[in-house]
Amino acid sequence: MKIFITGASGFVGINLLEYLKSSHELKTLIVRYQPDQTFEINADAVIHLAGKAHDLKKVSHQHDYYEANFELTRQLFDAFLLSDTKVFIFMSTVKAVADKVDEILTEDIIPNPKTHYGIAKYQAEQYILSKELPEGKRVYILRPCMIHGLGNKGNLNLLYQLVARGLPWPLGAFENKRSFLSIENLCFVIKELIESIEIPSGIYNVADDESLSTNELVALLGQSLGKRNKILRVSTSLIQKIARLGDKLKLPLNSERLQKLTENYVVSNQKIKKAIGKELPISAREGLLTTFDSFK
């Protein structure tokens, strides 16, 4: 099968190329939004990974998100509809639904994105869903949670650096649960969607089976490093006061970072697992340990 992949130089793209190279003919597409541009697609499937990721440093302009995540997706999807290509996979995000989750996130929850990143991804989803699919075509919108794996440089790496220094973890009093997604499980899902004509088109959350607390992550990091890290249960009210002080003094711990470290964000993967009819290849803990080992 001939597959076009956009965003192949990113974290997901690099891993996906390695995962699929032995079973499919792959071609990478370097794409960037330009007004009124058109694409010619000559492949069996398109995997659209390219886009603008959430900017934690907050230096991006809001129109960048809409051009890269909505307008570019619209152009590619229009080209797909006019082509003989059978499969279109769009990499969206759980942030197209919600920034905060008070219950388990399923595909049935009504989206209410809060950031320009999430809104632009949701607009792209809505555009795709608004079009009538010609017979024989399949379209999948994937909403992954936090993806990790070889080459990942995100928040898990920062947490790893803290634990590697032997510093105590001061947020032990916060109880939370978060879903994660191993890059191997994501690549497995994408391969199944490409190859199985029985999987219906639609929106699918993608996450590992098990959710973990940040305290469990710290303990798992210690296991990877062969260390026993001390977890301190400092009063949550005191930590929150320190975080508010950090907002004013620009300390490493501020309110936004505290939220990210201690919030609940559990994502259901039941719909995609039922559609595929197979178990994911690795457990959440196995995938995280593999990621942690790659940091060494």
From TrEMBL:
InterPro entries: Epimerase_deHydtase (IPR001509), Lipid_A_modif_metabolic_enz (IPR050177), NAD(P)-bd_dom_sf (IPR036291). Signal peptide: none annotated. It comes from the Bacteria. Pfam families: Epimerase (PF01370). Residues 3-207 form the NAD-dependent epimerase/dehydratase domain. This is NAD-dependent epimerase/dehydratase domain-containing protein. It comes from Flavobacterium seoulense.
